[in-house]
TrEMBL record:
<dbReference type="InterPro" id="IPR015017">
    <property type="entry name" value="DUF1904"/>
</dbReference>
<dbReference type="Pfam" id="PF08921">
    <property type="entry name" value="DUF1904"/>
</dbReference>
<protein>
    <submittedName>
        <fullName>DUF1904 family protein</fullName>
    </submittedName>
</protein>
<dbReference type="InterPro" id="IPR014347">
    <property type="entry name" value="Tautomerase/MIF_sf"/>
</dbReference>
Amino acid sequence: MPFLRFKGFDKQLVQKISPAVVKNFARIAEIPEEIVKIELLQIDSIQNSPPSLEIMMFEREKEKHDAIARSLYQCLSEAGYENTHIFFILLTPSLYYKNGQPLKEIPKMKQPIPHT
């Protein structure tokens, strides 16, 4: 958790950008890199569906969501995907279950990584 779900993208591109995406996402969200999940969803577009990046995560401050979206958009636009729709699906920790138990707290890094 969180899940970054790419729709309408080339698999090789997602594999190529994943290390940078995970690193930047984790830094901005202040979470360990190992809990960031990347998925490529295979969909059949029926009518005018642009590529999209769906981010399922726990809510943070609006500024963090904005920074995450900016960082991801920059990475995708540099790869030729300027028309990507990026959106968040916000989850509630008490309604997120691991091993049958609701989370008691949102995972965070012990010390934020400085921006390099």
